[in-house]
Specification:
CATH topology of the largest domain: L-fucose Isomerase, Chain A, domain 3
CATH class of the largest domain: Alpha Beta
Distance between the termini: 70 Å
Helix content: 25-40%
CATH architecture of the largest domain: Alpha-Beta Barrel
Shape: globular
Structural class: alpha/beta
Number of helices: 16
Largest sheet: 6 strands, antiparallel, barrel
């Protein structure tokens, strides 16, 4: 006879009448959790007060503050799974996010939860809480689990209170996403001259294939950044799976003389490195020399495997093995780049950016590589990058987003290029072995933006346009100090897409951009949409783009 014994899950955590359960998730890195905890505490108090004052509802914390750790965040998948193993499956749950969070800590449990779920972000730049909420929202979409989302700067505004009241009353909160418009496969844009160009590029990709080489995957819990292999194959962009251990081996092959020559090349062109003496807290030359070795190794690997684009997972193991990948990532994605010799002495792809897939996010790999192929084919500047949708605020009557990648962008995206770039040490709370960022103000210009997600094995692409602004020094400095000072910042107005539009409908913490001259932006956008449709991608035109395609 069979005898069954399973571990005791413990006492069920339930929500009584007039209660909701409060859960919060954050980083795997405890140093970051401790640093971010005071902001979380402040917004927990704000949420508790709003629930009690306006709705007579009590927020019941489902998990204790870990006094021995100095914070009250969920900080591992095991911890999150054990918690939800005890939570009443039908209890209403608010997931309050005020910092970067590893979605996989909670997402598998949320996917099975039967009760109402609200993802709530503080719309604040201090720590990337709204970035974390968008990541979790996109993750739940990729898992096929509908959840509600909400955001607020102070948890007191009418938009927040109305939304929270609706969720408490009905268990669901739906936002208007009318800024997104489905573009059908037989749309008239396909028959325009620009559409014909896009179709030819798409057909080339399907036949030739764009190989996306990623050194490991699943960076920082981003389930939404890991696409099914069938999805990638169906659009002509298969994965070349690489190992970060192989990258370390390749880096060791780069001699000291070549590393030095690489670093001098950037210094001679005006990049300013903020050198210090204490490697634990400051940028030192050895860190950047190691980053130069990574740059050279990435280019050689790209050439060896015939990659169209390359990316480095970096977190978590590589973070304790070598300096941060950021300088290498920004430099390899730049058209103006140190002439990197292959092992046979030939210079690798001179004057051509190699798209860098930061954080190995396949949802940005797709649009970045597509943009690069299209723009290169048209003889246009083809540098691309992703950014976090970090924060934003009003300026001169318009909402200006602060798009901020956590380390570097191509030099061509910075005001002044290499001469306008500054290398700061990556913050120790995230990057124990340091390394330089490529920081500066994003240059002014028109942009094409996109982001891919998936449903089943169908790839879905949001496509839009915008204006990157060069803000006055005082305003730019204010925004830098309100976010992460060491990282590059691009200030953008999205065409026909407001703050709450993007927060309601975007399926990622990331957005991919390329600069495109005003004179050709509409035609390039039409070609890009046609290229995507040809590659079997579902296209949702965002904001004004829908009018351009008509």
């Amino acid at each position: 006879m069979l005898s069954l014994t399973l571990p005791d899950l413990g006492q069920t955590i339930a929500a009584g009448p007039g209660e909701v359960l409060l859960v919060t998730n954050a980083d795997l890195r405890e140093s970051a959790n401790v640093e971010c905890w005071p902001v979380q505490q402040r917004f927990e108090h704000k949420l508790e007060a709003a629930l009690k004052q306006h709705f007579n509802v009590t927020a019941k914390r489902a998990h204790p503050v870990k006094t021995d750790k100095g914070h009250g965040f969920i900080s591992s998948q095991r911890e999150g799974s054990d918690l939800f193993g005890r939570i009443d499956p039908k209890a209403p749950v608010i997931v309050l996010l005020t910092a970067w969070q590893y979605s996989h800590h909670l997402a598998p449990s949320l996917a099975h939860h039967q009760g109402p779920i609200l993802l709530l972000a503080n719309f604040d730049g201090t720590w990337p809480g709204l970035v974390g909420m968008l990541c979790m929202a996109g993750t739940m979409t990729s898992l096929g689990k509908p959840v509600s989302r909400l955001w607020s700067a102070d948890f007191e505004d009418r938009f927040f209170l109305d939304g929270l009241g609706t969720w408490l009353r009905t268990g669901w909160l739906k936002h208007d996403t009318g800024y997104l418009h489905r573009v059908e496969a037989d749309h008239p844009v396909m028959r325009t001259p620009a559409g014909q160009i896009g179709r030819k590029v798409g057909e080339y990709v399907l036949r030739h294939k764009e190989l996306i080489g990623l050194h490991d995957t699943f960076c920082m819990g981003m389930i939404n950044g890991v696409f099914p292999q069938q999805a990638l194959c169906e659009i002509g962009m298969p994965l070349e799976g690489l190992s970060q251990s192989a990258l370390l081996v390749e880096m060791r092959k780069v001699p000291a003389e070549l590393r030095e020559r690489c670093l001098r090349w950037y210094e001679e062109r005006g990049m300013r490195f903020q050198w210090g003496k204490d490697p634990a807290k400051e940028l030192v030359r050895e860190q950047v020399l190691e980053q130069c070795a990574m740059l050279i190794a990435l280019a050689r690997i790209s050439q060896r495997f015939g990659l169209s684009a390359v990316g480095v997972q970096y977190q978590q193991g590589l973070a304790w093995s070598c300096a941060a990948s950021d300088f290498a990532e920004g430099a390899i994605g730049s058209a103006e780049r140190f002439p990197i010799p292959d092992e046979d002495g030939s210079i690798i792809r001179p004057g051509q950016p190699i798209p860098c897939i930061n954080e190995v996010d396949m949802g940005t790999a797709i649009p970045q590589t597509m943009m690069w192929r299209l723009l290169t084919s048209l003889g246009l500047p083809a540098e691309t990058t992703l950014h976090d949708i970090r924060w934003g605020s009003e300026w001169q009557g318009q909402f200006v987003w602060d798009l901020e990648i956590s380390g570097s962008v191509p030099f061509g995206h910075i005001k002044g290029g290499i001469d306008g770039a500054t290398g700061y040490r990556q913050p120790p709370m995230y990057f124990p072995l340091g390394g330089a960022t490529i920081a500066g103000q994003g240059r002014a210009g028109r942009i094409l933006w996109a982001r891919a997600h998936y449903s089943g094995t169908r790839v879905i692409l949001h496509v839009g346009t915008g204006h990157a602004l060069e803000l006055p020094e005082a305003e730019f400095e204010r925004r830098r100090r309100a976010t992460t000072y060491e990282w590059p910042l691009c200030n953008v107005v999205l065409d026909g897409v407001g703050r709450d539009d993007l927060m309601a409908g975007h399926q990622s913490n990331h957005i991919s951009i390329a600069y495109v001259d005003e004179a050709v932006l509409k035609d390039v956008t039409r070609a890009f949409v046609a290229q995507a449709l040809t590659q079997n991608i579902v296209v949702l035109a965002a904001g004004e783009v829908a009018e351009w395609l008509a």
